[in-house]
């Protein structure tokens, strides 16, 4: 057996999990006193920057409610027949060889080919009229009949006053998310739970909303039910492609958190206060990014940026070279803030070849020159207080090695401070340098995450040994921690490593986290 | 550093993927980026000073996204523009239809905006003449009919690109007195403007 729970009572694989309430009571006292929400390493001193608290639950809460309502619904038997149309008949032996084939992202792929069928994760978006809107692989045109079948499944179950949630068959999970006027379908051969897959579909849904707003989306389909939405989304497919890629690779999307550029707190404070000073009437958020890492975020008082919205912004900036050309000015809907309207974002790099990208979010679409002026004021102040140099120095080492922690068997970890919505993680060590290995490790983390956040049987901690690595996951009210050890480590060592690591993070927290977020 | 002064607002319009961004890249950064097509998101703004005779004129170039999604936004980019470079792809007749749409739009909304009709990707035609879908003379006739200048350019080779923007700047210089004697010349990038459009996102 390669899975073993840390506490003897929690062997959830056997289905003998004690009632959740009792478990919670038993485990309430944390072995590291004081590590409750708000006091964990990385917790912000003032109010947090994001809408956080139950961010992961927040994301799937809606779906969970539906799930409970339709708990008895199990369509797997009836639908197995149709399912074969979707996923093709495949045996389990065949699947093992497919894990790497997902690299070919060519849109021209033949949808009847074995290669197309064997992709690990398909995502389809269609309208309620059954019109294709997006497919991750292949072309939408070629899939119109397949998507028609998907819509038929949804409607068939709906006609019985029910909602189809998922189909499990043939080593495959087909997950449905109905977000009128859109329907999203995920077909996965990974071992992710329905909940995780649903979460990924939600992200895709929000990605589309961020381009169009829900108001516009509803308006379009009210007017013309069989509208071809691809017309309006033309040229944005790569944003969705990239987001799906991130969902496989980026721990931030898994943890509902973002990571920061390691930077001395004195330098970060100067950057933050310079941004704070460069304010304008309609400016709501100022965000400074270094690649995929947050340098600082200043927001209007009482306005919070949800991590999903922030990830959508990361994805927009990271996917496009468009903003390197000049100063970008684009409407953007932040769906977790408001699905009804557009913000207007001024997006520009501080220097042509720099990784530092400044995003100024305004409510006024006529505000371009005001935002441009804010940027100039920010730059002037930054150079006057010579923080720019420190920032550029920090960019040279945007990450750190796990060796700094000083735990020999520790290979990698993810640590999320719940109250700040920020996480930290070292660079991947030698053994995980290849893309496949990194994706495999992320897969393992996703697995652990699923167990810790199981909708009905959540675990507090989880230890798993395998031939290639040992993993420990631990969640408290203050933080979430995922550790990866060499397979030679022992459980006792892993448990003792937690304290050591937490101490190290505490020592480094003002460099790794944003402890004093500012508002205008 | 004080806010940059822009003399003339120039807007790039045209169907998606006709090469508006490439044209600006070639003119402003003297380069042509090879690689997968990337659409512009929203719009990008660049200010570029250009020598006209004794004077230096700064063009504020708005490179707009061709995607239909941003069409509702386009008005803010061409409002008050002194010149519009309406692009079409010489190898794509549908892009010329789109160019006609933009011309009509400009004629209706911006009567002081001078129109420059620009056929792009000339290098493809040089390589294979059969690729041409828009006859030079047809485009020329259309340009005369609407009182526009007509250019055929290649951002890949740089052919005719500088000439196009030089012409824009010269025309601006020649007509600047005509329209702008009464008002202050130029737009101060730092100045506050009243918005006459409501914003859709109120944060309170």
- The amount of helix of chain A comes to 25-40%
CATH homologous superfamily title of the largest domain in chain A: YNR034W-A-like
Report the CATH topology name of chain B: Rossmann fold
- Biggest protein-protein interface? A-B, 45 and 40 residues
Indicate the CATH topology of the largest domain in chain A: Profilin-like
Head-to-tail CA distance between termini of chain A: 55 Å
Assembly category: heterodimer
- In CATH, the architecture of chain B is 3-Layer(aba) Sandwich
| 3D shape of chain B | globular
Q: How many individual helices of chain B?
A: 6
CATH architecture verdict of the largest domain in chain A: 3-Layer(aba) Sandwich
Main β sheet profile of chain A: 7 strands, mixed
What does the average pLDDT of chain B come to? 85
Radius of gyration of chain A, Cα only, in angstroms? 23 Å
- By secondary-structure content and strand pairing, the structural class of chain B works out as alpha/beta
Q: What is the fourth-level CATH superfamily of chain B?
A: P-loop containing nucleotide triphosphate hydrolases
The H-and-E topology of chain B, N to C, reads as EEHEEHEHEHHEHE
Low-confidence stretches of chain A: 1-31, 52-105
- Domains counted in the coordinates of chain B: how many? 1
| Total count of strands of chain A | 18
Radius of gyration of chain B in whole Å, from Cα? 17 Å
């Amino acid at each position: 057996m390669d899975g073993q729970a840390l506490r003897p009572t929690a062997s959830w694989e056997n289905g003998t999990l004690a009632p959740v309430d009792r478990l919670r009571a038993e485990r309430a006292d944390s072995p590291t006193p004081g590590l409750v929400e708000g006091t964990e390493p990385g917790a912000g001193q003032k109010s947090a920057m994001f809408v956080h608290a139950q961010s992961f639950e927040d994301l799937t809460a809606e779906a969970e409610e539906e799930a409970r309502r339709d708990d008895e619904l199990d369509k797997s038997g009836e639908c197995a027949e149709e399912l074969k149309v979707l996923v093709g008949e495949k045996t389990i032996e065949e699947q093992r060889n497919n894990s790497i084939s997902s690299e070919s992202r060519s849109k021209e792929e033949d949808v009847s080919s074995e290669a197309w069928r064997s992709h690990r994760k398909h995502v389809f978006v269609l309208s309620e009229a059954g019109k294709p809107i997006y497919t991750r692989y292949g072309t939408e045109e070629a899939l119109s009949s397949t998507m028609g079948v998907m819509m038929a499944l949804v409607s068939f179950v709906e006609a019985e006053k029910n909602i189809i949630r998922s189909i499990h068959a043939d080593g495959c999970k087909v997950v449905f998310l109905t977000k009128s006027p859109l329907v999203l379908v995920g077909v996965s051969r990974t071992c992710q739970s329905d909940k995780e897959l649903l979460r990924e579909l939600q992200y895709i849904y929000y990605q589309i909303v961020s381009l169009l707003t829900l108001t516009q989306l509803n308006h379009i389909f009210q007017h013309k039910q069989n509208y071809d939405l691809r017309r309006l989304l033309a040229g944005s497919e790569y944003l969705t492609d990239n987001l799906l890629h991130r969902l496989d690779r980026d721990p931030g999307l898994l943890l509902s958190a973002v990571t920061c550029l390691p930077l001395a707190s004195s330098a970060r404070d100067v950057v933050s206060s310079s941004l704070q000073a460069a304010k304008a009437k309609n400016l709501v958020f100022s965000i400074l990014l270094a690649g995929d890492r947050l340098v600082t975020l200043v927001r209007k008082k009482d306005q919070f940026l949800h991590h999903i919205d922030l990830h959508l912004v990361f994805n927009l900036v990271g996917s496009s070279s468009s903003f390197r050309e000049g100063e970008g000015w684009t409407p953007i809907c932040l769906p977790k803030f408001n699905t009804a309207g557009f913000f207007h974002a001024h997006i520009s790099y501080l220097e042509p070849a720099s990784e530092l990208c400044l995003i100024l979010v305004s409510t006024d679409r006529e505000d371009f020159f005001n935002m441009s002026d804010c940027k100039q004021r920010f730059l002037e102040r930054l150079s006057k207080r010579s923080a720019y140099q420190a920032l550029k120095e920090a960019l040279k080492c945007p990450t750190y090695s796990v060796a700094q922690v000083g735990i020999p068997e520790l290979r990698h970890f993810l640590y999320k401070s719940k109250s700040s919505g920020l996480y930290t993680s070292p660079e991947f060590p030698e053994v995980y340098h290849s893309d496949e290995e990194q994706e495999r490790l992320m897969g393992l983390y996703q697995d652990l995450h699923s167990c810790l956040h199981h909708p009905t049987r959540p675990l507090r901690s989880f230890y798993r040994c395998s031939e290639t690595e040992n993993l420990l996951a631990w969640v408290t009210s203050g933080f979430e921690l995922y550790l990866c050890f060499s397979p030679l480590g022992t459980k006792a060592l892993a448990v003792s490593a937690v304290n050591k690591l937490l101490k190290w993070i505490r020592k480094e927290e003002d460099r790794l986290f944003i402890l004093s977020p500012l508002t205008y | 550093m004080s806010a940059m002064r822009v003399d003339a607002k120039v807007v790039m319009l045209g169907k998606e993927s006709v090469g508006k961004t490439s044209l600006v890249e070639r003119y402003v950064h003297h380069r042509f980026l090879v690689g997968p097509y990337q659409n512009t998101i929203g719009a990008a703004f660049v200010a570029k000073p250009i020598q006209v005779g004794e004077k230096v004129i700064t063009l504020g170039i708005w490179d707009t996204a061709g995607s239909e999604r941003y069409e509702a936004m386009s008005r803010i980019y061409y409002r008050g523009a002194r010149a519009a470079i309406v692009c079409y792809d010489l190898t794509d007749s549908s892009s010329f239809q789109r160019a006609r749409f933009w011309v009509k739009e400009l004629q209706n909304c911006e009567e002081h905006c001078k129109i420059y009709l620009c056929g792009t990707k000339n290098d493809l035609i040089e390589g294979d003449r059969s690729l041409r879908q828009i006859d030079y003379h047809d485009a020329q006739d259309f340009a005369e009919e609407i009182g526009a200048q007509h250019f055929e350019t290649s951002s890949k080779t740089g052919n005719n690109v500088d000439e196009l923007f030089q012409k824009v700047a010269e025309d601006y210089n020649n007509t600047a007195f005509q329209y702008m004697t009464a008002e202050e010349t130029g737009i101060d990038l730092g100045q506050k403007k009243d918005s006459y459009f409501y914003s859709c996102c109120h944060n309170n």
